[in-house]
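Students often ask why inverse folding is considered easier than folding. One informal answer: many sequences map to the same fold, so there is more than one right answer. In these notes we will look at a single instance of the problem. The structure comes first.
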C-alpha cells in the first residue's frame, strides 16, 4: 500500500464527511527523501526530496490551482514530537486553506495533476499524511 497516494476512496469518504461550501484546511505532514526518487520514464534531474517538493511540486501545484480559492497559510519545519510514536518523524508541516473541499478535489483529480504534479510529490516524499480540517466556532 502506498501511504502517500491520495486515493479515490479517501476523496469520496472525505466528501461525505465534509459539509459542502465551507472553507477547508488541509494539514500536510511531510517527511522528505534524502534523494528524490522518480519512477522510470519520468524525466527529471537528480535532486533532494526537499528540492523536488519545494522547487517542482509546489510551483506545479500553484500553476494548476491558479484562479481557484486557495490560500497557502503556512509551511514550517517540525522541531520536535511531544506525543506520538518515536519512529514517526516529520520534517515539515503545512496548512493550506481552500474555499471548499470541492476545490481541493477538482485540483487533485485532474489528469494534469496526476501526470505533471503528483510525480514530484511521490518522488520527494518518504512519508506523508494529509488531514482535512474545518474551522468551527
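Output (designed amino acids):
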Amino acid at each position: 500500500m502506498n501511504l502517500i497516494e491520495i486515493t479515490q476512496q479517501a476523496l469520496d469518504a472525505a466528501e461525505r464527511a465534509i459539509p459542502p461550501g465551507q472553507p477547508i484546511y488541509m494539514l500536510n505532514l511531510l517527511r522528505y527523501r534524502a534523494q528524490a526518487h522518480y519512477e522510470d520514464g519520468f524525466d527529471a534531474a537528480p535532486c533532494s526530496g526537499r528540492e523536488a517538493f519545494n522547487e517542482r511540486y509546489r510551483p506545479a501545484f500553484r500553476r494548476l490551482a491558479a484562479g481557484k480559492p486557495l490560500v497557502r497559510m503556512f509551511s514550517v519545519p517540525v522541531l520536535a514530537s511531544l506525543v506520538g510514536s518515536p519512529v514517526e518523524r516529520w520534517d515539515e508541516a503545512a496548512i493550506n486553506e481552500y474555499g471548499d473541499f470541492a476545490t481541493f478535489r477538482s485540483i487533485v483529480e485532474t489528469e494534469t495533476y496526476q501526470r505533471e504534479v503528483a510525480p514530484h510529490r511521490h518522488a520527494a516524499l518518504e512519508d506523508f499524511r494529509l488531514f482535512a480540517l474545518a474551522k468551527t466556532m
